[in-house]
Each structure stands twice: as structure tokens, then as C-alpha cells.
Amino acid sequence: MPGKSDGLLVGLSMGTTKTTMIVAERNTRYPDSVHVIGFGNAPSRGITKGIITSLQDARQSVMKAYQEAQSITGISAKRLSNVIVSFNAMEIQSESTHGMVTLGGRESKAVQTGDLDRVIDRARDNLALRSSMYSLHMIPTSYELDGRPIDEPLNMNGNQLDMWLQTVAVPMTNVQNVINCIQTAGLELRGLVLKPLASSLGAVYEEEMRAGCISICIGGGTTGIVLYRNGRAFRVVSIPIGGEHIRNDLSTILHVPFGEAEHLKKRIFNTDPDDLRREGIDVNLATETVVARVDELFNDYIRDALAECTPQHFPSGIILSGGVSDTPGIDLMLEDILQMPVRKVQEPVYKMPPGLDNASYVSAAGILKYQTLVEKDPYLIMKSDQTLPGLSEHSELRNRQEQLKAERKRRNEFVDEDEEYEDEYYERTDEGEYYDDDEDYEEDNSQRKNFGEFIRQLGEKFGNLF
After folding, report:
1. Residue 124 belongs to what H/E stretch?
2. Chain centre distance of CA 205
3. Considering just the CA atoms, what is the radius of gyration of the chain in Å?
């Protein structure tokens, strides 16, 4: 299982401002839940806008978080070394493709895991990725059985299965740099999850995902957006603007160092203005700077990214998380701009230790949530089938998926070869007739005719002997 060793779940969140290792034990009474037993925190170095810019500095941040987690939990370094890592990317390609397969020819049949695999392959065949991109996640977003929308197709009867697959891809160089960082820090990488997706999983409740919602996480260097419908993520966006931009503006306009500007950013709305003025701070100018930067993010970037979204499609509204979400009144500003209800995240979906029980640590909690989800249903969020050095094709997640398939096969849930043969060569037309589906059908049909002729000649030959 990814990130699991002797009952442990271990996640590592690599952000622009902080690197966090989270350690949890599985809740034996409630398999979908976990019990967080410790963590490690370190300021992020060598990461800009979520991207590794210095491998050595980023490695040091990972090692510090790793060592602190070991110190706090008292767990051996070896047991903590298998991790799932969340990271960001400047460029995210989130593309939807369609796949379709027939199930039983003229006879309807129940959808089996083999059918799911085939329809996923069909959808992937329609994906056009640049060679420089790595398909990090593959998410089935919706299904239809004989033209009717369904939530879960497995074991349901029909003739034709359609599926829409959302592929989330990032530059391969970003992925490889993360792998190099983890390996040089002495850790073993068991899987990767994109940070906006991890943050959304740590902030949004499942009933909100099912109803339809938008997760917006404003972190230090980036803002991640994930759109949910019917319990599935169907679009992922990353905007290269976050809390650091507010800090940088405050530093420039007020002529103060970055550290002081960062401290002021967190105090500006939570401290008595008179106290700030006594410290020599121009409160009005500082307030205007923060509001202007947040307004720019909401109006010029987030609203543009969500231009096609309407409140009717997202009844649960917007779930706002990340460190900047603590800014008083920011939820009201976002509600006014997007005309949708906004829920500010007070704490992650899992109970976190003191210090981590706030909106800044949704990504760490989301890594744990990701692991429980993919172990429960390997078709919910599928890992890439592309291989990279350091990220084994035979990862524990892949092994778990194969185990689940083998279990279903033992329960006779796989289609037999005869059923697959009929489906492989025929698909139904609107007139109810059947036509060739495979490009190699003519060649295969010719081979079968030749084989039939051979059998006939053989019968005649042996018939003459008697």
C-alpha cells in the first residue's frame, strides 16, 4: 500500500512556504479514517511557486521534516521512509477524453473489471499529450450505460459502456526533480499526488463532492482549484499566485524586509490598528495593499478560470482553504465576485495535532485521504501507467490494484474469453446491426476462413483413407 509500512501511512507535502511530513495509523474500526500520530515541519527552501529551484535546498527541507517526524513519533527512520508526496507544477494539463466499448454483442451483460479496463484504454487512446508531459492522475469523471448516466457501472447490465476520463498531466521535468529530491533525501517514493488535488481532498467533505463544489486553496506560492461533480474531480487548475505575492507587495510598498512583511500580513486584520500605528506602520496603506492583491487574484485569475461555472452546477459552493483563507472578510469578497456561497475551512477533514488543525495543512491531511480512497477503489483516482526512474512501475499502489483485480477474478467477475471475443469485433449501429470495431478484423476474419478451408481439406484427406 502506498506510504504504508507496518500499519503506518506516511505523507510528505512539499509547498512553497513549508514542507510537512504527516504520519498516521489506520483506524481499525473505521477503514476510511486514520489516526494522526505525528508530524514534522520545516520551512521550504529551494522551492518557488511550488517548483523545485534548488535540489540541494529542497532536499534539506525534506530531511528536516523527516527528522522532526522521527523525533516526535519515536518511530524508526526506516519505517517512516516510504512516502506519498504532494507537489505542485507551474503547468497543468487537465484534459477530458471519451471511451466506449460494447459489452455483450446482441445480449446485454454485467459490467466487469475487464470492461472498465478496456473503456479506460479507449479513452486514453484519444488523449493527445506532449512528449514532455507526464500523466500524473487519471480520473473517471462520469459513466453512461446504454446512454443512461450512472454512478458506478460495475456489475450493472447493459450493451454499451461510455466513460469520460480526466487526465491530469504535468511537465515530466517537474516530476523527475521531485523524485530526485526524495531519493537523495534517503526516502523511498511510493506515489505522487498533485498538490491542488491533495489540498481539496483534505478540505472538502464527500457529501460536498457528490453535490458539486469548487475547492480553492490559496497557498504560499500558488492557488489550486479543483472542480467536483458526482463525487469526482473533473478539472484541476493551478494559478502561480499566492500569499507570497501579498508579502512581496507589502515589503516593497512599506520598505520593510520580507520577514517583517510576512509577519504583518498575518497581523494586519487581527491586531488593533492603533497598536500597529504605534509600531510605525501605515495601516491604511498596508490594508489597501493586501485587499488590492487579493482582489486581483479573485477578479483577474480565479474568476477567469471559473468563467464557465454557474452556481446551479455547484450547489455546495466554494470551499476555501490555505493560509491566506484566514484573512478576515476574504470569504465575503469571494462570494460577491463569484456569486456563490463560500465555506471557509476551519480544520482539515481528519483530526490533526495542535498546530496543524487549521486550513494551512489541508494538503498534508489530503495525502492521507488520497491513500484511503485509492486503496478502497482503485478506479477512483488512477496513477499513471508511465514509468520514470525512481518511481517503480510495480509500486505498492499498482500491486494493490492488481490484488483487487485478482480477488474479483476469483469471484468470477472477469469476463471469459468467448464474451470478450464477441465484444472485441462487434459494435452496434443505430439501426441495430453490427459492424466491425477492430481495424484488424478483416485480417483476422481472413485467417479464420483460411483455417476453415484447411480443416475441410484435412477432413477430405483423412476421409479418403477409410
Report:
1. helix 113-125
2. 15
3. 26
Order of strands, edge to edge, in the sheet holding 213-218?
A: 232-239, 223-229, 213-218, 318-321, 342-344
51 forms beta bridges with 48
Greatest extent of the chain over all pairs of C-alpha atoms, in Å:
117
Distance CA 324, CA 219 (A): 7
pTM: 0.80
Q: Residue 450's Cα: distance from chain center in Å?
A: 50
Contact criterion met (CB below 8 Å) for 91 and 222: no
Helix (H, G, I), strand (E, B) or coil at 222: coil
191 vs 179: CA distance, rounded Å: 10
What's 391's DSSP letter?
A: B
pLDDT one-digit tens code per residue, 212-258 = 999 999 999 999 999 999 999 999 999 999 999 999 999 999 999 99
Contacts of 259 (CB under 8 A, 6+ apart): none
56 and 193 share a domain?
yes
Same domain assignment for residues 31 and 179: yes
The answer on 456 and 438 residing in a single domain is: yes
Give how many domains the chain has, as a whole number: 3
Q: Phi then psi for 22, rounded to 5 degrees?
A: -115, 135
Chain-centroid distance of CA 306 in Å reads 19
Dump the DSSP string for 226-243: EEEETTEEEEEEEES--H
